[in-house]
Structure formats: structure tokens, C-alpha cells
């Protein structure tokens, strides 16, 4: 990126704007963290440790900003045992993002990942992650993505996933993703699709119950009550 130099007519002021500076600065901070240089805090998760710089963490996360208050600084503590539900892999990915703006998360870890960034108050990362998740949306994964988006209040993702779900429901109503839903998640899915997919909704309920009849039979009445009401007026 170009460096701009401006000098006023009287030669009393020199102004320099280096567009590459923020990128170079962040890269050097990442190198410091990677090489464990000048780090002043250790995050401990399940006996594994991640070193970092308090100022960097505080700038990126309201959680860390509140944690590293005046009392904490005065205590001269340099190790924090993270008590929230997390894993070393997820926290390492989040710390990588803080230092580099890049991360990778495995599909199996997405739920806990979003739980962590909510806990850390990292709204920008949540927004960017939601946008990335939307690009992966298709008829095969729309159930899982909808449930994930609904749980973590990813509103734009939820809307797109709901549309994909409704448009493709006839082809996925007998899928494992549907049959293995909890009763709570199934109710949310049915609420989305039942007005446009009344008959398929009834099929879903029946197949879902059959998949674990002894434990799910008790939910038959509550699940069919609203659907039956809607059928009366079809």
C-alpha cells in the first residue's frame, strides 16, 4: 500500500500516512506471541497453556478487558485458569484470530466456538464467523446450521438457513439430521416449516417418534396439536 507524504505550503508541517503500518504492526505482534517474547499472561485450559499479551487480549475482548482490571494488575498475577466451557484448541484458534485476523474451526467444534466468542464478547468475530457460515449453507447442512444459528442468535444466518430448509424440506424430512433432533430443536424446525409443509410436518413427527418410540411417544400430542389445528383449515 502506498505511503503518502503531505507538506504544507509553509513547510511547517509534515504529515505521513503509511497504509501498510497496521498490517506490519499486527504481524510483528503475532511474531512476538508465537515466539513467546514479551508475553505477560498465560491462559491455562485443561493443563495446557497459551501465552499472550494482556494489552492485546484486553483490546480484542471485553471479557479480558474486565478481567485485567486495576486489582488484577496490582496482584501481579501472570497465570489465569479459564473456567468457562472451552478447549485448548478453540482458545488457541481465538487467540490466533486476535493476533492475525485468521482462524480455522472444525465443524464439530462450531457450537462451542460460538459459545466461547459470546462469552468473550467478541461481536466482530461473531459477525464475521456468521458471514463465513452463510457461504457454506446448502440443503445438506441447513438443519445443523439453522439449529446453530438459532441457538447463538446469528439472525442473518438463521433467516437464510430457514429459507433453505423450507425450500428443500421434502428432500430432508427423513434425514438423520431431523431424526436425531432434540424435542426442543424439532419444535423450532416445525415452527418454521409447518405452514408451507403441513403434510410433511406430520410425516416428520411420525418418523421422529418411530426412531426412538419408547422415549418419544410422550411427545406425540404436543407435537401434533398445532399441526392438526392447521390441517383443519387447509
From TrEMBL:
- Please provide the record's keywords in A-Z order: Actin-binding, Kelch repeat, Repeat
Q: What residue stretches are annotated with the BTB domain?
A: 39-107
- PROSITE patterns xref list: BTB
Q: Identify this protein by name.
A: BTB domain-containing protein
High-level lineage: Eukaryota, Metazoa, Ecdysozoa, Arthropoda, Hexapoda
